[in-house]
Amino acid sequence: MRPALAAFLAVIALGCGEVEHVPGLESTLRLRIHTPPYQDAFDGVSTLRLTLILPEGRDEIVNLDVSATELFLDGSPAQGVVMLLEGVGVDGQTVISSGRSTPFDLNPTEPVEVNLLFARKREFARLLGDLGHARFGHTAAALPNGRVLIFGGASQGDLDAPGAFPPPEIYNLLTQKSCVFEEELCPLFPGADRRIGHSATSTSDGEVLIFGGEDDVFELVEEVLLFDASTDTFELKDNFNPADVEPRAYHAAVGFQFDDKTGGGFRDAVLIAGGEVDSANKRVLTANGLLYDTQAQTFTRTELCMVHPRRGHTLTTFREDHSRVLAVGGEGGAGLVSPAEISDGDGFWVVEPGGGGRDGLLTPRINHSALPVSGGVLVLGGDNLLDSVDDPEIFLAGAAQGTGLFTVQIMAAHQEHSPRRGLIAAELPSGEILYAGGERLSVFDREILGSAEVLQAEEGFITAAFSQTAPIGQSLSFPAVTVLEGGALLITGGMKPASGGFEPSAEIWYYNP
User: pTM of the prediction?
Assistant: First the structure.
């Protein structure tokens, strides 16, 4: 045992059952480990390595046998503690499985129960509970307590003809149940809660802004909702001039930071731009952008203007600079849009290239992914309205190669490599990019994929290679992908193969990086 700062008792329960114990001297902690039902997370694990990630970089690490039920550690009461549990193989080095808790406080006056999902690394695992409603075209927003808000979408039809719009629900990662299957009902949802083509953007203070979309009779939704995870309630926001906030669908939205120009520094906001609006009894594309101030909880700028009206594009912040947003891809009035634009919350401007960079995509696309990576934004997958595309491109700012968009040269790809639209894409802690699922589209022929790959970058993503990794376990396209604490992914809904075609999915998949 290490020299004690202040002792606390950690009681480890390998499973989901209750554990009786005697309180420690100061802080008592009970760990409950949850595992995917269709995966043996302990296979090949000989030792568990438990790390308490404490404030100011003070970590406590201890190894224990997998049969342990009690463990004494040294530490002190603290706030914002995270527990990391790793299953190590017989070589004493290879991490086979792992799980990470959400932040918690060590309190000397009452016991603390910590829950985490323990799963095999670099594998997809189907979780026990399905969604209450199969759906596609929905959004999934992470909440601070390990739950995910599932909002909107359709439970019948297809991408071009959605139908039967289900109500929202909340999925609990640890109980592996949706709130419709819990003893307590789902939160009440005021206003138009059934919609598609909307956005749901998480804010830094645990709220989710629900904006736009169209309802089940394909009319644009005017109601703006704000979900508060601390109270599980929705508030209908109406503290703005509706004439200034144009209802829309199939727009893009992203959380970022903006300078309020008053000397108060940067503030959190949600930037919304583009999409479809109603004009003279018909749908048209808009270049209009909106700024929602999360502190004031209202729209403070409503006249931001993109250079190119578009729908189905992406908005992505930069990893090194959360005050700038890149708009890329999408469909305009005359076809797909090539030029990329940047916004700082005051306006938009077309990328100004330098060196060997371009101001737009060499392969314009829609239904793609755009990920913040070191030095820029990586654009992956999508389609050109006829075929899935297989031309990764990256935006770099001030790199040795120059500024602008560059083609990523693929130096190697395995035999089953495929272009994908509506894919699962995320950067892993290793720096590799997960590239999985989606559809291989060839004119009118659609194939939903269950394979998975990783993109391994070289030279700042100017060159890269695709290699095969463990498949999903289900052919799946257009799911909602939520990045959880520690980089794990929760994958909900989407489209899957069915007899004679495709159907919406209610399945929940988890990827542990």
Answer: 0.92
